[in-house]
Amino acid sequence: MARHGENIRKRKDGRWEARYRADNVGEGRRTYRSVYGRTYEEAKEKRVNAIRAEEKTPVHDTRRIGVCMPGEGDILSRQVLFSEAADHWLEKIAGKRKYSTYIKYRNIYRLYLEEALGPCLLCDTSGSELQEKISDHVLESRLSDSIKKSVCCVTNQILKFAAKEYSVHIPVLNPEAPKRENRLVETFTRQEQSRLLECIYGSLDLFKIAMLLCMYTGMRLGELCALKWTDLDVRDEVVTVNRTVQRIAVKGCESKTILMETEPKSAYSKRTIPLSAEILGLLKGIQGDKPYVFGGDKPLEPRTMQYRFQKILDEADVDGRNFHILRHTFATNCVESGMDVKTLSVILGHSDVKITLNRYVHPTMDSRRRQMGLLPGFYGQIRGQTV
Questions:
Q1: d(Cα 367, Cα 374) in Å, to the nearest integer?
Q2: I want to staple 308 with a disulfide (CB 3.0 to 4.6 A). Which of 34, 100, 118, 207 is the partner?
Q3: Cβ count near 87 (within 10 Å)
Q4: At the topology level of CATH, where does 190-369 sit?
């Protein structure tokens, strides 16, 4: 509900919008701008800061970086807050991208950028200063490399949007977060796999069959939970990945989430995977008249699968891990079995074979031991040679 008299209102998406009047010197008229906050008080404080920032900026100084109106060579007095550009950018992409993608971008901005960069006037902030702020608040933190890269990506998209929308040209940031040495992905050891398989085959149920399907295909958790019987082709013995599910925030309600079924992660994630006769037989044994393989009338809740996965690990006396380790274990086993990398890349749904190479094509300790075990025989042959 709006609070009358202060020009502050609550939007349908749950944010508070505070409008304020600003002088457009070049046009000789007044214009209105908006700032946004998660609460009424936050929006009000942002408006005060924005007004103060504009008052402190000399008119003659705005010729450095401002907004050029189409067809005009002179730069007008147009101060743009980073938060203003970010909010307008988010509004634009809300109708152009998948809702889950929009939520991801919005969360990245609000969690890692809004507080640090939101109050900055783009006309007074150089690219190097932005880089320094990002470095102080994000890149030097303990966030994962993927999050750091996402933060840089979102920042650059906002800056590019500001350049196009307001003619505010700030050099984009380096899209690559500081790199560290590639770490080997975590997988189950052979001993852990042995105990796990013994536990699974000892008393098969719906969730254990789901785990086996992942161990034989490398499907992601969301893809597994969204699997329908129509995705299985018994005659050709294949399964096709057509969709995924994930929990995302409800539009207009920050605290409530829903399970949303969407297209897979990327175009490459839509793929067809051959199935073994054993897995097909197990799936046939649980087939009913419900549309979803593991969820029945609706997709299986990923959190439920994660919970049951942990229970099965406990039963098998295996340390708790994230469900995604099954995908990593599948890929590593494929490499160890001699599968060519290009085939594995397609099965995993990677967009580039380099992703597969960098992530999985590393000799395991067992492989290194086997190869090193060949040396004694090799040296023995040398010693046995007659000089």
A1: 11
A2: 207
A3: 21
A4: hpI Integrase; Chain A (1.10.443)
Kindly report the CA angle at 80 between 39 and 135, in degrees rounded to 5? 80
3-state class of 268 per DSSP? helix
Q: What is the pLDDT of residues 253-291, one digit of tens each?
A: 555 677 888 888 788 889 999 999 999 999 999 998 999
3-state secondary structure (DSSP) of residue 24: strand
Determine contact, residues 232/242, Cβ cutoff 8 Å.
no
List residues bridging with 189 in a β-sheet.
Answer: none
Placement of tokens 């969820």 in the chain: 295
Give dist(CA 232, CA 211) in Å, integer: 17
Strand, helix or coil at 184? coil
Select the highest-mean-pLDDT range: 4-13, 28-37, 310-319, 355-364: 310-319
Instruction: With CA atoms as reference, report the closest residue to 109 among 49, 171, 163, 152.
Output: 152
Q: Across-strand partners of 253?
A: 250
Is the distance from CB of 348 to CB of 356 less than 8 angstroms? Answer: yes
Q: Would you put residue 71 in left (φ > 0), alpha (ψ -120 to 50) or beta?
A: left
Phi then psi dihedrals of residue 297, to 5 deg: -80, -15
Q: Which long-range contacts (CB under 8 A, 24 or more apart) does 196-202 make?
A: 196/312, 196/313, 196/316, 196/318, 198/316, 199/312, 199/315, 199/316, 200/312, 200/316
Q: Which amino acid is at 124?
A: D
CB atoms within 10 A of CB 280: 16
State the Cα–Cα distance between residues 116 and 130, nearest whole angstrom. Answer: 9
Q: How far, CA to CA in Å, does 296 sit from each of 33, 73, 264, 300, 304?
A: 50, 64, 20, 8, 14
For the question of whether the overall pTM of this predicted structure is more than 0.70, the answer is: no
Sort strands 244-250 and 8-10 into parallel, antiparallel or unpaired. Answer: unpaired
- The CATH 1.10.443.10 domain(s) of the chain lie at 190-369
Our measurement of the distance from residue 316's CA atom to the centroid of its chain's CA atoms, rounded to an integer in Å, reads 31
H/E element, 378: helix 375-384
Distance CA 255, CA 203 (A): 39
Q: Are 292 and 227 in contact (CB under 8 A)?
A: yes
CA distance 353 to 363: 17
Which residues have a Cβ under 8 Å from the Cβ of 164 and sit 6 or more positions away?
A: none
Integer Cα distance of 374 and 166 in angstroms: 66
